[in-house]
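Reopening this ticket.

The earlier resolution said the output was attached, but the attachment link was broken on my side. Pasting everything inline this time so it's all in one place.
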Amino acid sequence: MEKHNGIFGGCWCISFHLKPGEGKRGADAYRAMKEARVREGTAHAALVFDGSDAIGWCQFGPTAELPNIRSKKEYEEGLDQLPDWRVTCFFVDREWRGEGVAQFALRAALEEIARLGGGVVEAYPEDYTGERTSNSFLCSGTLGMFENAGFKKLRKIAMRRWVVRQEVRSSNAAPAMARPRAPSKAA
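Inline output:
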């Protein structure tokens, strides 16, 4: 995170956690807010490492932990049931983009959700199929990545943003559970 100035200009992946009135504080405040949530156990992420360096992650958590989503008004208009879990954002170090890090982090997040009891999982990816776009706009993941992971499209809530959902069964796994195979960086 430090290498990337808290990600995307200092967001520290905190915006999805914020309640009304908690936003617009700047990188230092967001870093402190995120650290406090991590220490309290109210921030979840599947981290991907290359040695001791975090090269990517997938943020997830119970809906109450991540109350903010993009296009929330449109989302709430067609809402029939809140999910148990949300997958809200990804980060991949620019040196590792295109190497499968986001897919790996998503699989690991779903495994952790299963270990924690499973349930309905929602995400809000972007669909840029056939278009070129900056990776900076893909922090919510791509529609194709989620479909490949077994998520089903529910409805469109913005020009390129979809609600996708998957039921994750409880794994009842022991603490030392198998992990998906890590991505390997192309030579």
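Reporter confirms the inline version is readable. The longest strand covers residues 53-62. The longest helix spans residues 101-115.
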